[in-house]
Amino acid sequence: MLIPAAISLIISALFLNLSLLGQGAFFIPTENQPLQSGKILGASEASQKKNSVERSGDLNQAVTKAIQEVRSLPMPRLYQLPQLDQPMRQFKNGPSGERNVKKDDFDLAAENGVIMDCANNDLFFSKRPDRSWPIASITKLFTAYTFLDYNPGWNSSYEIKPADRREGGRVYLFTGEIVTVKDLFYFSLVGSDNTATAALVQSTGLSEEEFIKKINRKIEGLGFKNTRIVDPVGLQDGNISTAREVALFAKIALADEEISKASLTKKYEFYTKQGKKKTIISTDDLLYNFPNEEVNILGGKTGYINSSGYCLVGQFKNHQGREIVTVVLGADSDSSRFVLTKKLVDLYYSD
């Protein structure tokens, strides 16, 4: 290789004859000669003119030639890490400077996840918080939040249409059944019913395409740069966000009383206008674990499609008033997203 050979020759020359470097091949700053623009430690920019070198033997010529060839080599480009929109919070050291092993060594068995402190939106814990990921039925939180701007009235009647039918999961509502808008809203958030969500969108008088535009305008208005929605139900893998932005949005959406109340409902029942009883059970198993002696749950939403894995966002508050949002995206089973969320809650409140 040329570079190692050149270095070897330079070192030899320095010991044999310091004067062989001729006309300032190396630059050593002094008090009266400060560093100038373009100069780096130990070298100066290559001159366009040909350097004159005294002929003091073959070794001198060889060293000079090697220096010139090394100078002509291009500087390597250093890899630039991607810049995140928001800085990550660093874990604090303990009183004696030691790291908090409990937090630092915690490994979330999911693709992405965070614990966000609601007091300042800092991430207490994170795993790939800014990686784009399909959010599945967590989308329904975005839909519910946008719907509130176009709500035709909770007691307004709506007839289920063939176009409302969505595959995926158990079907609760059928063409021709007449229900209230409130029933659609609760079926969407409590049981994550796809047909009810599509019907909820149609009840606003907007087309699905128009409603999607409204959702994305809301998202842009909130300053989210990594979230986009292509379908209001959550069945398409083009509905993407990040664990960080899901947490930030959940904090906003669950601050609305109607959304929070629906997401905390364990079971919702009603009768259609035709007299048919409908019952749906919450998809959020954590409603049966909280509140406990220390922590209350303020709401949440599940999600699952093949590309997203099992997802869950939840908001919690302890008796001291400390609120957090936890996000798990890409867990490997239905039960694991709940187990992992409980671990995140314990991790924060036991700190």
Condensed summary:
With about 350 residues, this protein is an alpha+beta fold. It is about 30% helix and about 15% strand. It is globular.
SSE diagram, text form:
Layout lengths: L1 H15 L41 H15 L28 H4 L7 E6 L5 E5 L5 E2 L4 H9 L9 E3 L18 E3 H10 L3 H9 L5 H14 L18 E2 L1 H11 L3 H7 L3 E5 L5 E5 L13 E11 L3 E10 L4 E9 L2 H16 L2
Antiparallel strand pairs: 1-2, 1-11, 3-6, 4-5, 7-8, 9-10, 10-11
Helix pairs in contact: 1-2, 4-7, 5-6
Give the tally of structural domains: 2
Q: Please work out how many helical segments DSSP would assign.
A: 10
Low-confidence segments, given as residue ranges, are 1-7, 12-56, 74-101
> What proportion of the residues form beta strands (DSSP E)?
15-25%
- Provide the succession of SSEs: HHHEEEHEEHHHEHHEEEEEH
- CATH architecture descriptor text of the largest domain: 3-Layer(aba) Sandwich
Structural class: alpha+beta
Shape: globular
- Spatial order of the strands forming the largest sheet: 2-1-11-10-9
CATH hierarchy class name of the largest domain: Alpha Beta
Main β-sheet description: 5 strands, antiparallel
* Cα distance spanning the termini: 55 Å
Mean pLDDT: 81
Query: What's the number of extended β-strand segments?
Result: 11
Overview of the molecule:
The protein has 351 residues and is of the alpha+beta class. It folds into 2 domains: 2-30 and 39-72, no CATH class; 101-349, Beta-lactamase, CATH 3.40.710. It is built from 10 helices and 11 strands. It has helices at residues 2-16, 58-72, 101-104, 139-147, 181-190, 194-202, 208-221, 243-253, 257-263, 334-349, and strands at 112-117, 123-127, 133-134, 157-159, 178-180, 240-241, 267-271, 277-281, 295-305, 309-318, 323-331. The strands form 4 sheets. It has a 5-stranded antiparallel β-sheet, with helices on both faces.
